[in-house]
Amino acid sequence: MAVNITTTWLGDMKFESTNPSGHNLFIDAGQENGGKSEGYRPKALLLSGLAGCAGLDVASLIKKMKLKVDDFKIDIEANLTDEHPKYYDKVAMHFYFQGDNLNEKKLQKAVDLSVEKYCGVMEMFRQFSELQIKTHFHNKSI
């Protein structure tokens, strides 16, 4: 399946990029690199794509498994190499779940399925990054 994205220069360091969903986003450099910080940074956008991919998988599995979760978030810490071309060589993903009587075993299975089977962005990151995945549970009733 082919995916088409068009990214158009808007002047200075700013671009507008289309998305198959119909929503556009802006990409811009920081002031230290000649931009005005009016958009996403490309490398950070990759990390958002990784979190979004895994998050959508896990949210879908939470629904399918009929699990009760009050709050769910993903934090990512990534190390950018010093030499050009700079890339993320180490990425740590932290999955946080909060709720009453969380089914930790099933939630961990949902995370594992995303990480090991479903998330295509995760697979792309495996080609150039060392990935570390951690799951954190915050049971309110405990």
TrEMBL record:
<protein>
    <submittedName>
        <fullName>OsmC family protein</fullName>
    </submittedName>
</protein>
<dbReference type="InterPro" id="IPR015946">
    <property type="entry name" value="KH_dom-like_a/b"/>
</dbReference>
<dbReference type="Pfam" id="PF02566">
    <property type="entry name" value="OsmC"/>
</dbReference>
<dbReference type="InterPro" id="IPR036102">
    <property type="entry name" value="OsmC/Ohrsf"/>
</dbReference>
<dbReference type="InterPro" id="IPR003718">
    <property type="entry name" value="OsmC/Ohr_fam"/>
</dbReference>
